[in-house]
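ARCHIVE RECORD
Type: protein–small molecule complex
Small molecule: nicotinamide-adenine-dinucleotide
Source of inputs: curated submission
Record status: active
Notes field left blank by submitter.
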Amino acid sequence: MSDHVNVVVYGSAGRMGQAVVRCILESPRARLACALVRPGSGLAGEPIERVFGAVPRNVDFSTSLDPDVPCDVLVDFSGPVVFDAALALAVERRAAFVSGTTGLREEQYAALERAAHAIPVLWSANFSLGVAMLMRAARRVAATLPDWDCDIVEVHHKRKEDAPSGTALALGRAIAEARGHALAERAVYARVGQTGARKAGEIGFAALRGGDIVGEHTVVFATDGERLEFTHRAGNREIFARGALAAAVWLAHREPGLYHFDEVLAPAE
Ligand code: NAD
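STRUCTURE (tokenized, with ligand):
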């Protein structure tokens, strides 16, 4: 087994894909095996230096993965429409699969679980260390203060296509589960008009969109007379790319199964 983990990046011309490729090029542990772009992309066949300006690496942007190219792990930041093809490619190559694509449908989560019988799989709505800590804190407060009202507010750039964000949904799921419920029983995605008073146990969501905001999440716990807020603000995309690459290096060569980003981090107290 080589010292380097061979990483194939799916969606490598995208905002996140580029950030992941940059992290790989700087990493002593990972090697960029292939930078996949969509069919018809003007970058297809071009050397990666055209975008990344790094020293020549002998890797071109490509629309398909050559069978000779080694692939220990496939990192996917494409989008829900092409996610199925990315997962199928990882299964076909028996490669580990790390995905940060959000806006997935229920059947796509089910497909991740099925694939985990054959390959190691790690999907996370958010690969930032700070959000992983926010998730732990929210879970703990939700369980300790089960009667406090809880809402989640997220803010993202104007080009984001899904709402609420995958991270807001993951926070909602963690909070609902910490209180012994499924999110679907508790979630309120919009409040408009004569909504009536807030129902006990609701988890409300609000999504704001504008400018180039990378991503902000606030979990609000409130009761009569006091309010507790936890906010995470992402300043750039590198934080997600670094986390995804750490997950990729950690996941490569593991046994098939469904893993969580929290496991890549320090153990919970
Ligand atoms: P983007 O639109 O900039 O990038 C997606 C890329 O995928 C595009 O370059 C597109 O051309 C490419 N693509 C489309 N079809 C393809 C194909 N068949 N083969 C290869 N590439 C193909 O989007 P983005 O802002 O980079 O976000 C991508 C996804 O990552 C979204 O779902 C977003 O919500 C998610 N995201 C997750 C995290 C996280 O930490 N989990 C953080 C940020 C964004």
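CURATOR ANNOTATION: The pocket of nicotinamide-adenine-dinucleotide is lined by residues 10-11, 13-17, 36-38, 77-79, 82, 85, 100-103, 124-127, 240 (CB under 6 Å).
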